[in-house]
Amino acid sequence: MKGFLPVIAFVTFLFSFFYKVEAQTNQVVNNGSATTAVSFPGTGCIYNWVNSNPSIGLPSSGTGDISSFTAINNGNTPVTGTVTATPVAGGYAYITNSTAGIVSVLSTGNNQVVNKITVGSQPGGEALNSNGSILYVVNNLSNNVSVVNTLTNKVTTTISVGIAPLGIAISPNGTRAYVTNSNDNTVSEINTMTNTVIYTIGVGN
Question: pTM value?
Answer without folding.
Answer: 0.62
